[in-house]
Structure formats: C-alpha cells, structure tokens
Amino acid sequence: MRILAFLSIALFFVAGATGLAGARFNTTPSLPLGLYWVQGTKPAKGSVVLFCPPDQPVFIEAKVRGYLAAGVCDAGTQPLMKRIMAAAGDQVTIVAEGTAVNGEWLANSAQVRNDPVGRPLPAYRAELTLAAGQVLLMSDRSPLSFDGRYFGPMSERTIQGVVEPVWTFSR
User: Options 3.30.1490.100, 2.60.40.10, 1.10.10.10, 2.10.109.10; which CATH number does 2-169 get?
Assistant: First the structure.
C-alpha cells in the first residue's frame, strides 16, 4: 500500500513538472488525442494554440455545464487548444448552418442547437471583419467542439502559446 501511495504522489509531481515545462494532454475530439508541447513560436493563422478563456458568461456557463474543466484561467477553466482559423483582416460569418472565413465554409462548423442532455447551446451569430489582435479559434475536426462558433472571436492576448503534437493518435 505504501508503494502505491508513493507511486501516486510521484506521478502527480511528474505530471505537474511536465505541465510546467510545457507538456499538455489533449483528451477531447477537437484535436487528435495525445501529448502536445507548448512552443515559443509566434501564433499565426493555421496554428494550434493554447488559450485561456476570459471571464465571460459564455465560458462560465460552459464550466457550470461541464463542457470545460475547472482550472486557472480567468473564467475558472483550464486552457483550451484550438486552431486559429481566422485572423486580423479576415471576413468571418457565423450562422447556425456553419462558419465561413473569407467566403469559404469551414468543415464541421455548423452549430449544434442543444447539448447531449437537451440544454440549448449559445446561438452566436456574426458577420464581421476581424480587427487587429482578434482571432477565431475553432476545431477543424469535431462538429461538436465548444469553440468560436459559440463564443465568437477572441483577443490574441488569451493565447498562451502555440502547441505542437509530440505523440498523438486518432480514434
């Protein structure tokens, strides 16, 4: 029993240390499952980034509903990993049927009306040109991702870093 307790404590500290060093584990369908590493590179359109949701009602409600895990971000959530699908100067359209960037519809971008237990999801709608310092963060893999189709553009200041896959696998 002591060995099991020691191994559990050691694993906790190793996980914490690797997290501080830049390791992140993705367990959501928004990106391939696996290990990612936070890089020191500058975020650009197409980059996968780690971002901290701001203290806004949409993120607080998402945490209450269990879409987002509790964590250290201003909204009380863990950071999320999403791809920068649009940046400053891009024309973005977000409607129930999907999200378009510069007139091209993104795959898997239609909004889902209700969550799995029947609660209505945010009905964010917009047609806008992103300003300097704004990005649209979304999954390009999952039609069920909680992303920019529900909360709109984010400030680049929410981005903590670019993440690169180290070891991933698809379901």
Answer: 2.10.109.10
How far apart CA 151 and CA 142 sit, in angstroms, is 16
Query: pTM of this prediction?
Result: 0.86
- Domain ranges within the chain, ordered by starting residue: 2-169
Q: At a CB cut-off of 8 Å and minimum separation 6, what does 107 contact?
A: 140
**Per-residue model confidence (pLDDT) at position 45:** 98
More confident residue, 9 or 31: 31
Give the mean pLDDT of 62-69: 96
